Amino acid sequence: KAKRRGRNTFQWYTDELNRKVTERVSLRHALQQAIEQRQFELHYQPQIHHSGRVAGVEALIRWHHPERGNIPPGQFISLAEDTGQIIPISEWVLETACRDAMVLNAQSATPMTMAINVSPMQFQRPGFLDSVKNVLARSGLPPALLELELTEGVLMDSAEHTIQALKALRQLGVHIALDDFGTGFSSLSYLKRLPINKLKVDRSFVRDVATDSRDAAIVEGVVTMADKLGLEVLIEGVETAEQFHHLRMLQCDHFQGYYFARPMALSVLKHFLDSPFAATASAADPIS
Ligand code: C2E
Ligand code: MG
Ligand code: MG
Ligand code: MG
């Protein structure tokens, strides 16, 4: 009996494995078409300064597949990273986001930063610094308005080489943010050595911040530490008024989350920034 169950389990396992391999191959082909046929779009999620003003946006890629519909980045970014397809995708993201940042800044009375997620492979490529330089030159975007979001995983390996690469980017005037802070394995000593500008506290610490005093303590501790290290800090994933109520008294520079605004297409964002709602909501309910 046990043997049969073992065989069944094995059968299930190989079927499942085959299904996954087939799915990956098909997704890889679909991605290739997406790159060639430009099926991607960038959505932008506002980042809110504690004064209530929209200080900038984060670019988040969207894939509209003609038959499968919208495929979220969580389902294809890591595959694209494995296959190398992340390189053409990332180049398109950088180019498009910088161009759109110029459009937004032409419309906005205050400077608006553009935050872009940089994948490990993209960052580690020798040509990355030059491609950032070129995109800035082509778009005319002031470097200080470009923020590159890196995850702890990127910064962990080959520390010395990484520090040099970050310094070169900082010399261009570009800003560096550490994304999903608190979920990786990097040691706190990296914060001392890495030339970064901002910590983005991962949303997993925010979810239960109203009910779990340990999460509240962690967020508060990170905000205090960032402040003392001279780093800016942004809290990600604020979804509810209740969460915000618990976070707003912290000396946190920026917030981002569905509670304030969801990621949206450029055309929608333009209206959002123009709308008296965005202006009065922040004026009537200043964050600090
Ligand atoms: P991330 O950089 O940490 O981006 C934040 C993610 O959280 C986004 O998911 C965003 O839509 C979502 N989010 C924002 N506010 C809230 C909230 O209040 N609640 C919840 N539950 N979620 C919120 P998205 O767009 O699905 O992107 C997922 C991840 O995919 C990103 O995480 C980033 O790591 C990666 N990604 C997205 N766009 C790009 C890109 O252009 N290039 C690269 N390399 N990676 C990207
Ligand atoms: Mg990010
Ligand atoms: Mg994040
Ligand atoms: Mg993330």
Automatic annotation (TrEMBL):
Protein origin, superkingdom: Bacteria
Domain EAL: 24-277
Record's protein name: EAL domain-containing protein
Residue range from the parent sequence: 528 to 815 of 815
